[in-house]
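Most newcomers find our protein records easier to grasp once they have seen one. To make this concrete, we reproduce a full record directly below:

===
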Amino acid sequence: MSSEKVSEFVTLVSNDGFEFKLLRSAACIAGTIKRALNPESGFQETARNRMEFPTINGVVLEKVCEYLYYNQKHADSKDVSDMDIPPELCLELLIAADYLDGMFLLHKEGRGQFADACTDEI
């Protein structure tokens, strides 16, 4: 797998069939996604450039994707305003963030090592 070119984009699929195509560098901000898409992992997600989330619905996954891009966009900013998150999504987003690993840590501590390591692979 390491001899093949790593795709710039990945597809995230919700449990209700919605597909979100986003930059690998943004997707890999989430630790779980980064580990699954690592060419050294041997996971099928690496070859397919596609991850399915059987416990995350489309509305929540869309907000997760928004967050990943928001985090990437403001990676070098010092004073970043909070994202607008509807209160009715808070619990589901918290559960998704816990599963996706590392998302809240990155928000609090800046860009962090997850995104840096992933973008180095492209």
